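so my prof wants the structure for this chain in the tokens format not the other one, which i didnt know existed until like an hour ago. anyway here's the sequence
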Amino acid sequence: MMIRKAEKKDLSRIAEIFVFNNRINYFPIFKDEEYSFGKLQVVSMADNYFGKDETLDNLFVAEDNGIIKGFTEIRKTEIVKLYVEPLFQNCGTGSALIEFAVRNFQADFLWALEKNTRAVSFYRRHGFFPTGARKYEEGTTEFQIELRRK
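here's what i got, hopefully its the right format
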């Protein structure tokens, strides 16, 4: 597994991983069909979010045999996003990404959706623990919790 800086040619794959993870993990929580299956589209995410220079400059992909299996977005010492293709989860990709972020960027905090218990458990296994800080997920009544590395 190699972790490298993302390139423009990776954007559709990054957006695909993001969109499918969002649908699998967040639709059951938010139950927002209009967002999950209307607004949340691979092409628009690639163009309007991941394709922006300020985002692309902070993206890194986990690649194995030419296949992008996951990605992370890191800003300063915050892990902003960390997603793994659902079919490649539980194979070490997420662990490789989080270890990369800690080792190379001294990543020490992130926010996770409180009800995304799988993600919270994953981060706890990697030394990130809830601080007690909470904030609303933008435009919703659901909470994100802050996790910090001890």
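also thought this was worth mentioning. The chain has six helices and seven strands.
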